[in-house]
Amino acid sequence: MTDARTVRSAGTREAIMAAAERLYAEHGLVAVSNRQISEAAGQGNVAAVGYHFGTRADLVRAIMGKHSGAIEEIRQRMVEETRGSEEVRAWVACLVRPATEHLATLGVPSWYARFAVQVMTDPVLRAIVTDEALTREPLRETLHGLGGCLDALPAEVRAERGDMARQLITHTCAERERALAEGTSTRQPSWDDTAGALTDAITGLLLAPVTRRSPAKEART
């Protein structure tokens, strides 16, 4: 009896996460209620989300964690192949390709990339997800390896360009996922080609020259 109950509970959790991911991706985090998620997951009890996950932040963390586990497995494999490299592009690929490779396995339609955009635009949830992501060793090693190739950049420039790179990856993947779901044309023919384009663009971004600010401009900022 206990095993059957455990299986049912796990199935309910999976159904809730799948429904929440889709609804959050399509409508945004604020616009979706726990009642809507419960109904979309086929749960007669409208309190099912709270019972199984607690807060919205806990639900979002569970969804992100489910995908992040698969992504970090891919990243670990790539890091092991890249370890010791001093090539910026090689480490950028470790940053980009795990996400696109995972997205390619989800089929069409998928919602994870658009869900991730919604999360990353929420200041509270973004902080939670980012802090947790930085505890994962494959990502930490990727960022360390990339940082070691960019020692010539001032720390504030590296941080700023890192923010730009994250936005570029997140939004480019979300736009491709949306186009695939809607059956409209995409910029690249495959997720692999999308990863290549992103890797090229981010490598160029990170290696771009830094314009020295004039004293007058610095005083105004």
TrEMBL record:
Provenance organism: Streptomyces javensis
SUPFAM superfamilies for this protein: Homeodomain-like (SSF46689)
Protein name as it appears in the record: TetR/AcrR family transcriptional regulator
Domain HTH tetR-type: 16-63
Keyword Isomerase in annotation: no
Keywords: DNA-binding, Transcription, Transcription regulation
UniProt keyword Transcription, yes or no: yes
Entry-linked InterPro entries: Homeodomain-like_sf, HTH-type_TetR-like_transc_reg, HTH_TetR
